Amino acid sequence: MLQKYQHCLVSLIMAGGVVFCWLGYMYSTSLSPKSQRKQAMLMEPVRTDVLTVTPWLAPIVWEGTFDPQVIDEAFRSYNLTIATTVFAVGKYTRFLHALLESAEKHFMVGLNVQYYVFTDLPSHVPINMTLGVGRRLKVVKVPKFDRWQEISLRRMELIQTAIEEYIHQRANYIFCLDVDMIFHGRVGPEALGKLVAAIHPWFYWVPRSQYPYERRTISKAYIPQDHGDFYYQANIFGGAVEDVHRLTKTCREHLEMDKSAGVEAVWQEESHLNWYLWKNKPTKLLSPEYVWDDLRGQGAKEIKLVRFSSVIKNKAEVRENP
Length: 322
Ligand code: GAL
Ligand code: MN
Fold this sequence. Notes:
It comes from Esox lucius. Belongs to the glycosyltransferase 6 family. This protein has helices at about 1-30, 70-75, 95-105, 150-170, 240-260, 270-280, 315-320; strands at about 60, 80-90, 110-120, 135-140, 175, 180-185, 195-200, 230-240, 285, 290-295, 310. By secondary structure, the chain is an alpha/beta fold. The strands form two sheets. The chain has an eight-stranded mixed β-sheet with strand order 1-9-7-8-5-2-3-4. The chain is globular and about 100 Å long.
C-alpha cells in the first residue's frame, strides 16, 4: 500500500515537473512578456505635446515615439557599418576622450562603428581606449587651421574627400559629430535615415523669422524671410553615405563661392547646412534630445531624455581666436 502511494507521488512529481518545464519554455519563448510588444494604438498618439512628423512626412524622433528593442531587433540582421567623423583640432583634442568614452556606451551600440578622428595632433588621440566588438578608430591627419571658423569651413571639404577616398567602400551610413559633446543616453539605429539632421535646442519654439539663418543675399546660404522649416544644428548630421556626400559637396562648393566673394555666412557651415536642408528635405529629423546644450540646463518638460549635448566650455580658452 505504502509502495503504491510512493509510486503515485513520484509519478505526480514527475508529471508536475514536465508541466512546469513546458510552461517555463513557453513563457521564455513566444509567450515571454519581453518579446511581447505594446500594441501601437492608432487612436492613442504617444506624444501630443510635440510635433512628431514634418509637413513632408519625415518622422521627428522623440523619446516615446519608438520602441528601442523593436528597432534594435529590426536592424540586427543588416550588419551595418556607421562611419563617424569627429574633428579634434588644436586644443579641442581635450574633448576627445570623454566623447569617445560616452559614444562607446550610448552611440549605435551593437552596430559596427568606424570612427574617423581628424586632427592636427595625432599624438593627442587616446589610443588606449577599449572599443567594443566591431568598432574601430582611424586617425586622419589634417593641417592646423588658424581660426576656429576655418575649421568649421574646411570640415565639409574634408568629409567629402574622405567619403570619396575610403568611407564609401566601408560604410552604409555616416554621422558627423562635433567633438565638444557628450552622449548621455541612447542614440541608436532609430537615428538612421537617408538624410538626417537635428533640431537646434535654442530655436525649436520660436517663429522662423527669429532663426539665425544667413539673411544676406550675397551669401550662397541666404534664406529669405518666410522660408525655411526648422533651424538645424551642425553638431550632428548624417545619413546614407551617398546622401551625405552630396550634402558635403554642395556645402563645400557654396562655402568656396562665398569665400571668393569675400563673405562668411553668419554661422559658417551650419548656415550652409540649413540652406541645403531647406532645399533638400531631410528624411528623418532628430529632436533636440539628440543635440542638447548643457547651457540650457534641465527642466524643459518636452525633453524627456537628453541623449547628446554640447559641453559647457570656456570658448576663450579653447579657441585660437575670438
Ligand atoms: C549656439 C551654438 C552655435 C550656433 C548658434 C546658432 O548656441 O553654440 O554653434 O549653433 O547657437 O545661433
Ligand atoms: Mn561645438
